[in-house]
Design goal:
The chain has 19 helices and 14 strands. With 425 residues, the chain is an alpha+beta fold. The strands form 4 sheets. A 6-stranded mixed beta sheet has the order 2-1-3-13-6-14.
Length: 425
């Protein structure tokens, strides 16, 4: 059973309460006869993408591309208000966790048959985040995931030449690190106001995180309770400091001085660590351990969305095709450091020979898609609120799981009602 797409009146009802001004989509026509495209890009990508435009326009002289940079902090609201005001751009970068929400309001144009080849040569879990009801509604542009950044010199002093691949062995290595790292230092940093680390542990479970067509929480499953117990034990056993991210003044400084030896992060941290850590600091990236072997992680990154409202779909898909060419992906990596969505682009010498980047390729191959409910971001926020209270002693793993389920079910109430209404009709 699938959810029916709401009409615009219903979608506007979902957006009630927004006070942001309606976004504008920019240029609607050109006097030189070229087809105009407007592309919204977020954050660093918004400042980098214009470097790719001249080559595209040289190859496609009948098309012009206007890039509009949008801050990440405003991007989600800007897209929703632009939809409400019928003023979306032709194409936009969107966060992978926004795909289901944008699809639910009917904003996204599914990948047409003539562009289906863009869905090949992709990481399976990342591509799955872009599918709704089995149909791709956005195209992965660049990818990321989280794995471990490790102080290899401290790990070696603790008696380990590599990061263990199981939870039990990994915890044993953390206890060894704690013994050699010095007074007041820890083995791992798990900021209690961040959900990504616990989510990573939870993805090792065999059971899905949401049940009944993503209408109910499934956090009381044995696998997720085991993840909560493992997460809690790292604090209970003194391996992780009970701090939030705001209490860490400078991650690189604390990592360099040995305050923690394991740090969860993504590819964006590679450049920062290379620039900010002294050359003598020994570190590496490594895959996520799991209960019984190498573990999964959540696929991240951004995708390219062509909107149903575009008046120039063929030109829009030509731009998407250009951005997804392996050669363009490699150049984009050189400009921004963002990792290519196309697996073939990883064979470029600069990527294939980088020992800090290659573990991300292996980790992405083990990634597991997160639930595609529009409420997912709110659910994981509630999950982490409960988890923090758990590590502070208010809940056991079992009662914490039940509380997360209760909060998730409350957030999913409208989704259940809509699905039941669709079934009744």
């Amino acid at each position: 059973m699938t959810l029916a797409r709401p009409d615009r009146r219903t979608a506007l009802g979902w957006l009630a309460g927004s006070t942001a001004a309606l976004a504008t989509a920019g240029c609607t026509g050109r006097s030189d006869g070229r087809t105009p495209l407007t592309f919204w890009a977020m954050g660093a990508e918004g400042t980098a993408v214009p470097q790719l435009v001249p080559e595209f326009e040289r190859r496609n002289p009948g098309i012009s591309v206007e890039v509009q940079a949008v801050p990440w902090t405003a991007a989600h609201q800007k897209l929703l208000t632009a939809y409400a005001g019928d003023s979306l751009p032709d194409i936009s970068q969107i966060g992978n966790t926004w795909v289901s929400e944008m699809a639910a309001i009917g904003a996204l144009s599914p990948t047409p048959a003539f562009a289906s080849d863009l869905l090949t040569d992709q990481f399976a879990a990342v591509l799955e985040t872009n599918r709704v009801d089995g149909q791709a509604v956005a195209t992965p542009w660049y990818v990321d995931t989280r794995l471990l950044f490790c102080r290899t010199d401290i790990l070696a002093r603790a008696g380990y030449d590599a990061v263990p691949v199981t939870w039990a062995e990994w915890k044993a290595s953390m206890h060894a690190i704690k013994r050699v790292a010095g007074e007041g230092n820890y083995a791992i940093l798990l900021p209690v106001n961040e959900f990504e680390q616990l989510l990573t542990f939870g993805l090792q479970a065999d059971e899905p995180l949401l049940a009944d067509q993503a209408t109910r929480g499934n956090f009381s499953s044995p696998g997720f309770i085991a993840a909560l117990a493992f997460y809690k034990s790292l604090f209970d056993e003194g391996l992780a400091p009970l701090v939030s991210a705001t209490q860490i003044s400078n991650v690189w400084t604390e990592f360099q001085r040995g305050y923690f030896s394991f740090y969860f992060s993504g590819p964006w941290s590679i450049g920062d660590f290379r620039r900010r850590l002294p050359p003598e600091t020994q570190w590496a990236t490594a895959g996520i351990p799991g209960p019984d072997g190498p573990g999964a992680s959540a696929p991240g990154g951004s995708s390219l969305a062509v909107f149903r409202s575009t008046r120039h779909p063929e030109a829009a898909w030509a731009w998407v095709r250009y951005l997804l060419e392996p050669e363009t992906q490699v150049r984009f990596n050189q400009i921004t450091g963002s990792l290519p969505a196309r697996k073939s682009a990883w064979e470029a010498p600069a990527l294939a020979s980088d020992p800090m980047i290659q573990p991300f390729k292996a980790q992405l191959a083990r990634a597991e898609a997160v639930p595609k409910a529009p409420e997912w971001e709110r659910i994981v926020t509630e999950m982490q609120i409960v988890a923090e209270r758990m590590v502070r002693g208010e809940y056991t793993p079992e009662t914490a799981a039940a509380e997360i389920d209760r909060r998730a079910n409350r957030l999913l109430e409208k989704r259940r009602w809509m699905l039941e209404r669709g079934g009744a009709s």
